[in-house]
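User: Modeling request: complex.
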Amino acid sequence: MNVFNSLTRQNEELKPLEGNQIRLYTCGPTVYNFAHIGNFRAYTFEDILRRVIQFNGMTIKQVMNLTDVDDKTIKGANAQGVKLTDYTKTYKDAFFADLKKLNIQSAEIYPAATDHIPEMIDLVQSLIDKGVAYQSEDKSVYFNVRKFPGYGKLAHIDFDHQQTGARCASDEYDKENVGDFALWKAWEPSDGPVAWDSPWGKGRPGWHIECSAMSMKYLGETFDLHTGGIDNLFPHHENEIAQAEASTGKEFVKTWMHCAHLKVNGEKMSKSLGNFFTLRDLLEKGYTGREIRYVLINAHYRSGLNFAFSALDDARKSLARIDACVEKATEGTVPEWANKHLEDFTNAVNDDLNIPSAFAALFSLVRDANGKGAEGTLSVFKRMDEVLGLIFFENEKKEESIPEEIAALLEERKVARAAKNWAESDRIRDLLKEKGYAVKDSKEGQSVTRIA
Ligand code: AMP
Ligand code: ZN
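Assistant: Request completed. Predicted assembly structure:
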């Protein structure tokens, strides 16, 4: 399996550093609002990544942090006059519900920043002890970027031609403003009740230190893989490397991967621009998690993806085509041509997660199965779906795509059939057909499909 490593800017084989397990850290959500589908582009990319790793027979230990203390969460909680933990709980719960809707596999560990303050304090202390961090006159603690020779290696900053030396208290800034960044932020009145004691006085951790402390706690000082959206590359990931490597003297992460942004009319979908849709917004419009997942994964993760409703409509049609074919697919000896499509699929996903090309292999399978007969193809669909997570996404198909009115008619029909009232059963079947749904009866009961 080959992937593009943002650190070396090369395609490289992904092999576990130890045993058969890939240790993966993914930067998780800041839980101050509902995640938008741009965020979910990053999380579906990471889901595909972990599925392809397992598809190749490796095991995975994934850690995804929850940023539940930072400038934005504090501002939100204080504006509403509620405790920080109560404020963030709403969005943590919503996040996990959304992951399920998109059939994103769970990470093994979801550490919250506020549960790891002692680990962060220890890491800051070790950086002060090593002489790469200092407490400034504003009482905050900063990392001195000039003291870490490797600074800039991920973002490829040409350090010598830059005006540096300034300090930057906020968590996010651009490359032109490289400077010493905050590890520990001294308490300010606007922080309200949010503060922890530390050797440097009352305050709270900076955002970057969270990820270094929590990743090393759960994955070790050196681990395989670290990912995020491209906007995380600088300064966040650059700073994570500096903090970890300056403290341990060891290489922090072997492979870095970053996904491109989901855009709207050419601009990054983001909360600050106001051009975003949450998952809830789209579900309310009648789209399913399955359709949204289809759109988010069906572009190469390093290419820009422009969001459009027409793509969701196309996804619905494509999924109906796949479903109709899979209905006919059976177990048994796999035809040679189907194995060939599986081979193409495998080569595509192992070539830096080329999902558009993998979809092409899937649709070749559908086309041939429709033409030559679908006998023996079921295992191939199942194998492909280990990566895609779309085809056998049963709950979603049944629960989400059936409107309440149709569900109620099905329930009435069930009662009629139990009472052996066949005339009523047939009447409801015809009514469902008029409304665009075909009913099938089997030993397990009735099932419906939308008539495309
Ligand atoms: P945040 O909650 O802003 O820290 O972002 C969580 C994750 O979503 C990070 O990995 C970001 O890089 C990613 N992200 C934010 N906006 C987008 C977008 N429009 N497209 C893709 N990924 C995004
Ligand atoms: Zn992070």
